Amino acid sequence: MASLMSGPAPLALFAACLPGLEPLLAEELRLLGTTPRPLGGGVAFAGDRPLLLRAHLHLGTASHVLLRCTAFPCRALGELQRKTALLPWHEWLLPRTPYTVRATSRQSRCYHTGAIEERVRNGIAKALGVAVTDEPAEGVLAVQIAARFVQDQLTLSLDTSMTPLHRRGYRLDSRKAPLREDLAHALLLAAGYAPGMPLLDPFCGAGTIAIEGAAIAAGLPAGRLRPTPLTGTPWFDESAWQELLNALPAAPLGLLPDASIAASDRDAGAITATNANAERAGLAKAITASCDALTNQPWFNTAGAAPARGLVATNPPFGIRVSGGDLGNLYQTLGHRVRTLGPGWRLAILAHDPRLARRTGIPLRQLFATNHGGVKVTALISEG
Ligand SMILES: C[S@@+](CC[C@H](N)C(=O)[O-])C[C@H]1O[C@@H](n2cnc3c(N)ncnc32)[C@H](O)[C@@H]1O
């Protein structure tokens, strides 16, 4: 009776993120009504299938949501295949769902990742009653299964996101060194960006920070433009996903009465990309994009052009030198310009080298540190 009353056991879920973003992701999960448990590289939580869909729609700082299928001790490849074949794979995959298996192994007798992947594939095929197929070709949308051995304990997880969550669907035009959408989102959340707060990115590139900010300002969730999650699995539920989308604000720009978002870049191609991306995101009207070098950005140059308070959130060039001068000078100029906006403004900056960020001359404290495409990145914010 007790088990009937309590319903099916909650799913064991894990939202993965870039290292360093765990506290921000945990807070997003808390707002979704879960009890998050931050771990290295992500946050564990429990929930049902509707929550899994809501996580795909709302999480802005996660890169994947994994379903932990099972964990068991295992010391040999034969045992691995036998135990894998006994699992209820028909609950997680359809017989024709393309899938890939990726293995990792640490301090375990099963150490050959290629052999682990092969045995897991064999076990899955046996459980589903189908022939073992080749790995799907590059570019085919496939469910990823992670087989993780640590000290002879295997954990099998299924990546329910199919494609990384930072691929929101709007940034089809990008320029040099584009910022990942989840990282732009993290910078804004960590900086306390909130609806109604004016926002400026004077090194906007493809417009990622401005577009993520406009979506936050409009109350639009990060995953709204992504394909329906869980395609090809027994969990696919188009109508439940559409119901979530239908419940979103109908005229989001109506929610932006006093928000003002400006983006600029000295590169004309960057502004074309920003406008095209903002259009795809449904947020073109919320962002004023202009082709201006830092020193010509209108909010810095025209008295009264900038609102009295707001946030400059940006990731300036990372390289050692930029054409036309030293990067240190560029950061120094940025600091000088931000100070001219007045005491109501704060600066949030993503920099490869915090020493460079300190060349702004503005006292900064660290928000988080992470890795972006193999490059160490630190997010900092001005005090006050
Ligand atoms: C690291 S990228 C920004 C990437 C951006 N966050 C995105 O998501 O695409 C730095 C940008 O700064 C611009 N830039 C470099 N020097 C500049 C200057 N003096 N004034 C304005 N923009 C500049 C570059 O054209 C480049 O687009």
Main attributes?
alpha/beta, VC0802-like, Rossmann fold, 2 domains, 7-stranded mixed sheet, 12 helices, disordered N terminus, binds S-adenosylmethionine
Number of strands: 16
- How many domain units? 2
Q: Please report which band the strand proportion falls in: under 5%, 5-15%, 15-25%, 25-35%, 35-45% or over 45%.
A: 15-25%
State the share of residues found in helices, binned by percent: 25-40%
Distance, first to last CA: 56 Å
Tell me the structural class: alpha/beta
**Largest beta sheet, briefly?**
7 strands, mixed
CATH class of the largest domain: Alpha Beta
- CATH fold group of the largest domain: Rossmann fold
Mean pLDDT: 91
Q: Catalogue the ligands.
A: S-adenosylmethionine
Supply the CATH superfamily name of the largest domain. Answer: Vaccinia Virus protein VP39
Total DSSP helices: 12
Rg over alpha carbons: 23 Å
Detail the poorly predicted runs. Answer: 1-6, 320-324
SSE string, helices as H and strands as E: HEHEEHEHEHEEHEHHEHEHEEEHEHEE
**Order of the strands making up the biggest sheet:** 2-3-1-4-7-6-5
CATH architecture level-2 label of the largest domain: 3-Layer(aba) Sandwich
Based on CA inertia axes, which overall geometry fits?
Answer: elongated
